[in-house]
Amino acid sequence: MKAIGVDDAFIDRLVETFYGRVLAHPDLGPVFDARLSGRWPEHMEKMKSFWSAVAFRSGAYGGKPVQAHTGVSNLTPDLFPKWLALFAATLDDIAPSPEAKAWFMATAERIAKSLTLSLFYNPALDDPAKKTG
Ligand code: HEM
Fold first, then answer.
1. What CA–CA distance (Å, rounded) separates 14 from 66?
2. To the nearest whole percent, how much of the chain has pLDDT over 90?
3. CATH of region 2-120
4. pLDDT tens for residues 80-121?
5. Which numbered atom of ligand 1 lies nearest the CA of 64?
6. What is the rounded CA–CA span in Å between residue 40 and residue 65?
7. Residue of 11 and 62 predicted with greater confidence
8. 89-97 long-range CB contacts below 8 Å, 24 or more apart?
9. How many angstroms separate the CA atoms of 126 and 117, rounded?
10. Is 25's C-beta closer than 6 angstroms to any atom of ligand 1?
11. The pLDDT of residue 133 is above 60
12. Ligand 1 centroid to 25 CA: how many Å?
């Protein structure tokens, strides 16, 4: 991680910059703020320890991401591509290296996919009897 420019200072900056943009985003902002109003500082700390735990395998984060998202009102599957696009744009602006951007994107995409499956997976959509093509 050091070799590609990722350290705690960068993670702080990434989280601050990204959630600043999330809040200003017309679709993402209201969904986050409805849940986190009055609790933003805690969320920012949590996200810093989350990314730091993933990047440095530090064990600093002990939360449960799937549970944390289950009660978020108006969280719909179409918001995930928007989240990822905003994260990519943020990394384009501030990532210390192309490798750092690639690592953060690959990790976020994997987690987004896994969250989407846990939150929205509907076995009926995979029913072969209902497949048209
Ligand atoms: C549109 C997509 C997303 C929305 C609207 C969303 C929204 C939220 C909200 C509102 C919370 C705060 C929950 C609470 O404390 O009450 C939260 C927590 C969190 N989110 Fe997301 N999120 C999204 C995508 C993601 C993705 C892609 C990741 C992973 C890279 C992620 C990682 C986390 C983590 C680690 C927490 C903290 C969980 C805990 O409490 O330990 N989220 N998210």
1. 22
2. 86
3. 1.10.490.10
4. 999 999 999 999 999 999 999 999 999 999 999 999 999 999
5. 41
6. 16
7. 11
8. 89/21, 90/14, 90/17, 90/18, 90/21, 91/14, 93/17, 94/10, 94/13, 94/14, 94/17, 95/5, 96/4, 96/5, 96/6, 96/10, 97/4, 97/5
9. 13
10. no
11. no
12. 15
Number of H helices, E strands in the chain: 6, 0
CA of 128 relative to ligand 1 center, distance in Å:
33
Cα-based distances in Å from 63 to 19, 42, 43, 74: 19, 13, 12, 22
CA of 59 to the centre of ligand 1 (A): 18
User: 132 pLDDT exceeds 70?
Assistant: no
Q: How crowded is the C-beta side of 22, counted as CA atoms within 13 Å?
A: 22
Q: Say if ligand 1 is within 6 A of residue 31 CB.
A: yes
Token reading at 10:
């960068």
Side chain identity, residue 86: L
Q: What local confidence, expressed as pLDDT, does residue 131 receive?
A: 67
CA distance 49 to 16: 13
CA distance 66 to 70: 6
What residues does each domain of the chain span? 2-120
